[in-house]
Protein 1
Amino acid sequence: MFVDAWDPSYGSSFEGGGDGGDGPASPSSAQVDTDVEVPAAEWAPIDVSSSVRCPDVVFLVDGVRRNDAGLWTAEEDGTSYAGLAASYAAGVVRCDLARGVAELVGARVGRGLFTASPTAADVQAGSVRYEVHRIHGTGEASKLPAAVQGPLTALEIDISATARDASSDGRDLLVVDGPLRNRRQLPRTIGYVKTQQKQYLPAALTAVVTSLRPSQRTPVFHLGTVWGGWSWYLRLPGASGAPWSGIVRVECSPDLTPGEAIELAEVSGATLPRFASSAYKDPRAPQNLVPIAGLERRLRGLLGDSRVLHRALTQATARARLN
Amino acid sequence: MIGVSDDAVLPRGGKQNDKSGDDPVGRVLGTADATPLQFWTAVTPGSYLQLDDVVVTKRDLPDREPVTIAGVVTQVRARHEGAQFDSDVFAIAEGTLPALVQEAAEITTTRVDPELYVPPAPGAIVHRATGEARDAALHFDRMERRIPMGTGRDGVPVFLNADFLDGTRGAHVSISGISGVATKTSFATFLLYSVFRSGQLGADGANARALIFNVKGEDLLFLDHPNTKLDEPTRANYKLLELPATPFSDVRVYAPPRAGDSSGSPDVSSRLTGVDAFYWTLEEFCDKRLLPYVFADADDERQQYTMVVHSVTAHLNRYAVPAEGGISIDGRRIGSYGDLVDHIVEQLTDDETRSTWAGSAINMGTVNAFARRLIGSKRDLARLIRGDLAQRRPHQIKTAESAQVTVVDLHNLPDRAQRFVVGVTLKTEFEEKEKAGTGRPLLFVVLDELNKYAPREGTSPIKEVLLDIAERGRSLGVILIGAQQTASEVERRIVTNSAIRVVGRLDPAEAARPEYGFLPPAMRQRALLARPGTMFVNQPDIPVPLCVEFPFPAWATRKSESGPPPAETMKSIVQGADPFAVVGTRGGSSDDDIPF
């Protein structure tokens, strides 16, 4: 028996099935090519090669979001649409491991009013402005939070490109929190997936994943899904010892050659373990990386105080009704 | 109005800071309460604030002119923002955790102009104050006469309001600090030098006199000798303070006669010229009622025999007549202090004469206690109370007839003799002042180890004199510059009467006492590690004590750093006693260089 290191309010690092503890439950329908690095029959944990040099500079990108207020519009015909005022922020940490400096090289805050209402206009709440993002379709309240992800991802792409342009040494590595999806065009970039929901590998190979020791990785395999690409599993140090604890899936762009993908896998195995967080400091340890945790704290600080914004929104809308 | 404009003029000869005056150094914090009297400032990255820096900020008000709030930095802190755990510092230093180093400074307000006590607005820009703004923040602009007392931490002069020194609005200085590292006497002499030479007191400063008691070593005997170790930076420091870097110009040194020497030559070993011997003749001893000062211990006063002391004093005063240097009493000629003591004891133990000397109600036990102590004083005082030396020879310490600075050397004297000299000298000077009835010329009295002469507990004739000076000296122009290791052990009335309080390095246990309540907590902590030459000066019109660094003395403080003696001291070389004996004593010591 093992206690999951994650705080229960964050869920679990993998979505287990009813029988529990044996890994991501829902099998994926994706076509998986496991013969990329080594033939499937020869799969075994791979140690970090001593020849791999960890890059001196690692960029880590993440975004945070917060729902500031739920709103309702009153249309002239008497109908009402749900609205969501949300703040989101994206930032980049530049970890210069050679100099020992981790700094925030870019952070941007966006605020939006997400609604399907055709009449809604921007809301000026105190000193901040919520720009209208019109949603297609019926726009039920439950679907609005997902709509925030688009602008946030755009912000993340934008800011990571800018940050890298300004201070790249050509050998750096960019770690994106979450799957790569439409960020695959960024060079030397890996997607970092904390939560395992799908079981991509056949049962025989899953045993290789659970037998990984800290800092070891599986061979690279290819996912044939829409957002697929090259992928591999990695176990971070500091895990509880449960079969799936401390396991993360790392992916890179499918546009790369298998050789380039394997090289990135090697680099990730040398780099990511040193960023792993410890259980008493982070409710999602060890998967939530230390720089990401620090970045999220800073970004949340940039979002501003939620109570102040909520009150400002209330006042702004009340004043608008009076006019 | 305190100006924050860029055309602020630098103080007199003040040197430019590395940051110019209109350069913002930070903003008022909003995460801690800002109050009119104290607030925190976040320091702009790339800037710094250190303790004692002077800053200024503005608060705009509706329908009014803006309020300028000026203050000094009383605490500075730096911390990692974004770190939650102590161990996060390793992740930050390794470069894995992003965090921000943020410095913040606590400002204690020194001036609000116009006097409208509003807090500064969080976010308001804070400037480093230089030039006129700094002068205004520290109230120097309101001082009509300001005496330079050194430089602040920013290297710009710091002043003392002369009104609180010369008796106009206050007087007396109390200096506390550990012996040896607190440089109490050096600061006292520097302050005197500044009074005499800055010209800020006008004629009062030039005519003022100083009476310095030298209790330790021969440190103060070279005030009129140039210091050969004076270097260029120190000269520049004096120039910055607009003071000449020269020794005291007019100094007279008095030393007790050498013990067992019938010629009365002064007992000094290192200074050879310009030293006079001081002593009292037996006639003066009787006539001026000096006997009580022989019993100047605080515990003497509690004893029964004080009655005897006063009766004997009165008897001597009435019946002693001068006779060839000594005195004649009851038809008997007495030529030395020892003889006088023997005679008194003889008369008191004789049943027939006792009542005429001590009154009738005195029992033998009391007389014996008196006699025992009187006999005990023979060894200590015999060389100071003389019947064998010429009466007309100048031997008395009188500042009015002496030089500008009179140094009385006590360091060779035993404790009882020290008390006698201090007590009698101060009493004489104070009585002279009382007789003259005018507060001018000013007389500065520098006395170290005040806790010995005016202890908190008990009474003694010296303590009475010192209390008199502390309470009435201000109007009579007698200003006490008292120094002590522990202000808590000095008579409270003397400390509370001091307008100016100075603290050098303090003992940790001593610093916690209420006598140092004027120091803010951070400054109290700093006083524990103050370097020699650093003092904290509290004056009534500035709400925060100022940290002062006073320059290395331009006069010699010991034989080895002394330059050639001034020409005028040569004339008294004839008084330098037996020249052969002096040569003999110098022969063996190697550290005494030829002084040219």
Note: DSSP finds 17 helices and 23 strands in chain B.
Protein 2
Amino acid sequence: MNRQERSVITLSHVTHVYGKTQALDDVSLEIPAGKMIGFIGPDGVGKSTLFGLVAGARKIQSGEIKVLGQDIGNDKKRKDLLPRIAYMPQGLGKNLYMDLTVFENLDFFARLFGQGKAEREARIKTLLKATGLDPFPDRPAGKLSGGMKQKLGLCCSLIHDPDLLILDEPTTGVDPLSRRQFWDLIRSIRKDRPQMSVLIATAYMEEAEGFDWLAAMNDGKILDTGTAEELKDKTGGGTLEEAFIALVDDGKQVKHEKLALPPYEDGHGEDPVIVTKNLTKKFGAFTAVNDVSVEIMPGEIFGFLGSNGCGKTTTMKMLTGLLPASEGEVKIFGKTPSNNDMEFRHRVGYMSQAFSLYSELTVWQNLELHAQLFHVPDDTIKPRIDELLRRFGLETHKDTLPSSLPLGVRQRLSLAVAVVHEPEMLILDEPTSGVDPVARDEFWKLLIDLSRNKKTTIFISTHFMNEGMRCDRITLMHEGNILACDAPDKLIADKGKKTLEEAFIAYMEEANAEKGAKPDSSAAGDITASVEDDKKTGALLALVQGTRRIAAYAMREAKELSRDRIREAFAFFGTMILMLVFGFGITFDVENITFAVLDQDKTPESRLYTQALEGSRYFTEKAPLIDHADMDHRLKSGQITLALDIPPGFGKDLLRQKSPEVAVWVDGAMPFRAETAGGYMQGLHYDFIGRLYEEYYGEQVALSPVSIEPRFLYNQGFKSAYAIVPSVIALMLLFIPSILAALSVVREKELGSITNLYVTPTSKFEFLLGKQIPYVAITMMNFLLLVLTAWLVFGVPVKGSFIALFIGAFLYAGCTTALGLFFSAFTGTQIAALAVTAIMTLLPAVQFSGLMQPVSTLEGVGAFIGRIYPTTHFITVAKGAFAKDLDFAELWPSLRALLISWPIILAAGIFFLKKQEA
Amino acid sequence: MQRSVKNIYRLGIKELRSLYRDPVMLFMIIWAFSASIYIAGTSISHDLHNASIAIVDEDQSPLSLRIRSAFLPPYFKQPDIIAFQDIDEGMDLDKYSFVLVIPEEFEADVLRGRQPTLQVNLDATAVMIAGIGSGYIQNIVNDEISRFISNGPSTSQSPVDMRLRYAFNPNLSSKWFTSIMEVISNITMFVILLTGAALIREREHGTIEHLLVMPVTPIEIMLSKVWANGLVILTATAFCLWVMIEGVLQVPIAGSVPLFLLGTLLYLFFASALGIFLGTTARSMPQFGLLFIITILPMNLLSGGQTPLESQPEWLQHIMWFVPSTHFVSFAQAILYRGAGLDIVWPNFLAVSVVGLSLLTLSALAFRRSIAA
């Protein structure tokens, strides 16, 4: 280890601000290398921000950060640094892809770091073995328990042998057994790679005690650093938790007393509030909750402890009536909860596991909305909210949006919302997950107050053993079964252990032993695969690795798509259905023009005139008109498009050669149709004159000195199908691919996996191109399907060069998917991406691309858009190839336009996409 | 009942607040009802406009020169004079929509009364323009020839005259048509998008579940979305009609705007019910996106707002009759262009309401089922 790397990270004067909130305030710190480094402190003090900056996921606003001796603020250096850093963001499996299997997730990350096939497989094998995930390589990540997700996340982080591992609250929300296994794993990895530094943020003080070096943070500042012992000595605190509380604020130290739970007073023969008998819930073949029977008394705090996915949440949902039970029964307040029982809902407060308040409403607005919906009388709403704000310490956040609040504060808000209507019973699903110790104690004070003073029954699930100790009774749950249910002290005594955690682990191991499953963490010794690096060097290696990354994103996208049956089916057959509808439905043939006659003459001559219309295939006659009012009415209502008004005396005047005049009214509401109808009418009028001469004078007259012979090129029957089918193909290859491509990026933004772009050596180009490939492939398959439909169903074969058409479609698919990616760069939510893509493709494609009328006839903005929009060029290619029998050379100008557009649009997308979070 | 109304009102306020926090969405709504309408109204013309024409003049006579100079903007671009062998290339590459061929000895044949033939080549893949354009060309040529023969304006006495007038839009200005049809298609699009996507977002963020443990029924949740999003779109529509259509684009509105807004209100029930229906059917936003495109495109293109309904095959017309957007287009045209009153459009209103309410009921059932599962 050279001198430079004595400290793995050096921060100097780092400041970071979100809007008005100061996340980091002039932080300067040297972090020693080769150690387990813990960051402790309440939520929202800037730990996650600091980690994001160090990992290169966030852009540095001010100050300088040196990671592994290099400046991470420098884009070029960062690119070299990223392969040496691994970052696991906060939240269970936040960087994983839930539709992908365990193996596929690992494989994806290995490819992002440009590893070859042999290397990948060797590494994945060792990692799976070491983490005990090897029995389930084919299980989708979404179906793993929380602990397993975190292990998988760790595997994904370790795939490239990083020198710096950054773990942001890796064990939050994970059961004690998994947590223990997780730390064992980290320790054995470190034994193997002692030079690796590990940076960890944690809410568990017991865990932090085991770290080599700690930094205590508060309010965007570093309070103190040193080993756990040093910190304890400095403050004179007995435990790290106490030491930390002392550090946070010396003045408050005295105020902070140990939380005391007044003993539960047995109800005097009261009926239990919650009774479940043999409660069971099955999802298909999977039993989520098995045979749960409990009785909970009024005012009792009843704890539910267990690993993730053990059925706690499902049980709670059955208690609230959100889920019906498969077997067994639930009685609450002596009644079975039903979906429609509004009275019941008034008496219950529920706080679900995930934060589920409206992130678009401020703290105050959220509280107000819930108070109103629970029908708290209007005049008491304000005092009630004020009181809650005060009690839950939310006054300063009153007008803030929840999304900008730290997790702990958000959880307090959730609880405030759950009690806003003073329910008799509270169901709280892991309310303190991710909340720091100080805030957690505050939270429990509120709960104890509610329980003992207001006799609110509290049903709570948690991972924290010290919280379990505060319950009157707890239930230990594992894989849908109750392992034990009693007062916490009694459970510990039963197993002869010292702490609840040990007792719980004992219960779990007992249950696992019965099933014969035991994760094998002993193999963790050999974590690093000794695989030779690629022999290639320099530019060639970079190229190979880049290609692998593109392939990684392409394959991942394709797999995800293939797992979503509905999306897949629509992507393939949606276009064909639309093509059928449009092929038959869109037509500019003006036919079936409805007309009616107001014949005020009623002579053979007037009838002769009418017959001219009746005989035309373009016109359809409706009942005769009675008078002008009728004519007006029927034109207005759209019942007829054309009205013919023959004046009285028409026949007489005609015979006297006095040139009578008929009046024709055409509904001008749809101009092009009106114009065509008018043209037809003119023709018929001349027809009539011709017939008139023939019948009355027996002579043929040439009305025109010339005859004009129209020659309809490319479409002899002058039928719309020939014109429409190629255009419809162009539309179909635009909307669906662009929307799918846009959503694929924005979805990652919304779900958080975009972090993988930020912290891996993936370039923006590789990311977008990788995303594009599967959608271009689908679009091409679509294209072939559509060409086949055009030929077989509509009888419109490709007359010209199929090769040119195929190449055109390929380039066009590149353009349309790139357009989607381009729009995704500006949008943060899927709904906005959908709206932007729909608006920005629908109008230009339908109106300005030559579908309705040639681009050359457009004006202004429309003409400009029409000229540059890729659809215009593809329509030219499609029409050329389908109808005009053109060959490759003749289509080249349009192909060239598409060939140029693709890289331009993609480059714009790359330009606007961010490689770091703000 | 009163509680229910209060709940619906308050949840609706929440919807409005949510929308207010989404700047991209707000911008899109404003864009869709202002700039987008303006672009559609001013850029597209359905009548013959700037059509590209080329003339092969093998006669080179005074008459052929006259005909050549008769093709004038704004209907036609300045004609290109090309050689006969260039016709195919010009047409193939979309350079010309029309090529008129004036044969040798044309003038002489006309004067001798031999009725010579003029050939008009049309690019029939541009169906709309080809049909209208050929009529224009015939009229222009005929006019010029008769003027040439009589050496003045045509005075030849016809046994019958026909006075052709276009009702409601005397100059057949297509601006009137395209701008209002654009409004209609944007109304449909945004209501479906707002309600449906808002629903999916609530589900993806888990807030729906949260609502359901409160004394709020699914119907109330649904109706709150209907009124709130409906209000936004209705306001945008009213603004668009008065400010954009009447003010900026100078399109005269024949009928009563309030009556049209009333009809729009009825239509909004349908559109938001459809949005909720799609939102409950789709399990994720990408799925919703696909469903959205698959429903919005046919509704947009086949309701009579873009292409004539009467020319569709009969089976499709029957299907489209059940789609309220068809009635929406129909009454929009009746009220806004033709000045129709309630006495005329009530059947459309009725049809929209009946289909809308049925779908709303269906959506409510689907919605309840989807959250029970």
Note: Confidence is low (pLDDT under 50) at residues 251-255, 518-527 of chain A.
